[in-house]
Amino acid sequence: AITCDRPVPTFVGPTVDQSAEAVGRNVAELINDGDCLQIGIGMIPGAVLNALTTKNDLGIHSGLISDAVMCLAEAGNISGRYKKQDREKIVTGTTLGSESLIHWAGSVPDLRIRPVSYTHDIGVIMEIDSFVSVNSAIEVDLFGQVSADMLGGRQWTGPGGATDMMRGAALSNGGRSIIALKSTTSSGGKSRIVAALDRNTAATALRTDIDYVVTEYGARHIRHLSVSGRAEALIELASPVFRTQLRDEWKSLMTPI
Fold first, then answer.
1. Which pLDDT tens digit goes with each residue over 81-104?
2. According to DSSP H, which parts of 4-132 are helical?
3. pTM for the structure as a whole
């Protein structure tokens, strides 16, 4: 640790709209009392955290935390009492939020800042019972592949540590990985559930990394579904405007040449 005169950067999160609120409520239904969460930052993660005010004894083991985590901790929803390691501690790699979050993080005794070699270590994560990884995405295709950092062949962000968290969740006793996203772009003109990722768009997460996909239209457990069953489940999560188109595209995609 070093002493520095520069202020810690602050971050103002996006306003949560009605569609994101619906996604958050649907994710919250998959969260149980005592679960340990990893969750990112942005509109969808914020909506999920806002919807967890009825949950109890949650734990946090995450790459970063936002103001919404602070609010849940101050309200008593986060206790970490069921964590086998770092019991009753909030574990994170960094904070990203308001000035209030910065001061809180510097004073609260239950917060532990750990390096990425610890927060994202699958060997550490797998030892956390009921570890739930919640991440968002740009697109999910009907195979269950996730693009969270590329769109149309263009790099928009980085993959981060989401797949580390997903794979750790898969090995956790009672763990599960959740991808949460709004069903369409902000204009509503394009579905974010797509038949297949573009040829020039790499998948961030494999179809074998995901347990649940959630949109404002519900949640589906896709991990053990057949290829066709998975496609139909994901079409049900798409906006009704695009479901017929997706079925037609899927049929064409799966028709032998």
1. 999 989 999 999 999 999 999 999
2. 18-28, 43-50, 67-75, 99-105, 116-119, 122-125
3. 0.94
Whose CA is closest to 178, among 215, 124, 128? 215
Which amino acid is present at 142?
Answer: L
Q: Which stretch of DSSP H or E encloses residue 244?
A: helix 240-254
Check if the beta carbon of residue 11 is closer than 8 Å to that of residue 97. yes
Phi-psi region of 133 (alpha: psi -120 to 50; beta: other; left: phi over 0): beta
In DSSP notation, 107-132 reads: T-TTEEE--HHHHT-HHHHTTSTTEE
CA dihedral 43, 173, 30, 212 (to 10 degrees): 70
Sheet holding 59-65, edge to edge: 111-113, 90-95, 59-65, 36-39, 131-135, 176-180, 212-215, 218-221
What's the average model confidence in pLDDT over 30-49? 95
121/161 Cα distance (integer angstroms): 10
Q: What is the DSSP letter of 135?
A: E
Stretch among 35-44, 102-111, 150-159 having the lowest mean pLDDT: 150-159
Q: Which residue is listed with tokens 């949560």?
A: 16
3-state secondary structure of 65: strand
- CA trace torsion 236, 246, 207, 184 (10° rounding): -70
What pLDDT, on a 0 to 100 scale, did the predictor assign at position 176?
97
The sign of the dihedral angle between the CA atoms of 116, 166, 27, 42 is: positive
**One-letter amino acid of 100:** S
CA pair distance 255, 132, nearest whole angstrom: 37
Which among 200, 197, 88 has a CA at the least distance from the CA of 138?
197
